[in-house]
Input
Amino acid sequence: MTQLLLGIAPEWIPTLDNFIVGRNVELLAVLRQALAAARGEGGLYIWGETGSGKSHLLQAAIGQARASGLSALYACGEVPDAAQVVAIDDVERLGDEGQIELFALYNRVRENGGVLLASGKQAPVFLSLRDDLRTRLGWGLVYQVHALSDTEKAQALQQHARARGFELPNEVTTYLLRHGRRDLPALLATLDALDERCLRLKRAASVPLLKEVMRVDPAV
Output
């Protein structure tokens, strides 16, 4: 019965529409424009702290590109094959060979009029990468992804709960923001764990249940 109950929750998929914009209005508009034109104009590099939404944006962009009939590939910390739209997360994790591959991929995608999206924790000039690769990443548009405020995080949590089909009381949201980890992916993971516990116990979301989840698995 537990497995059946857990299967009720719909899978949450990052999209450009469910991205909580905050101070990233211009970035989202530029990303949509690049995908609509299917041309990167030298690429788009986004950077920001862990949990700011970089991975959400890249995965969402790939999903939208595929829905539009384009070939699109996403990879994290490694270099995928060439496609009309390519997204590479966490470029600072690339080793020497990976950096050579990304340099070649950048040139290939640009020559073919595709879109290359990349992300890292720092602006290109501060990345510990080959000079020629840092230069390439800085050629196109570069945007910082600004982390959400607590109010915007609360909005994201409420939206995520609705997508999973359960009611999230305000007091639960407040407690999670005060006592949970600060980055949004961790907050969403905690929310998912709470939802699963609610389904298993057939109880509504509450602060006591949230405390149980955070006590059992403080890493979420």
User: Anything to note?
Assistant: The chain has nine helices and five strands. The first helix runs from residue 2 to 6.
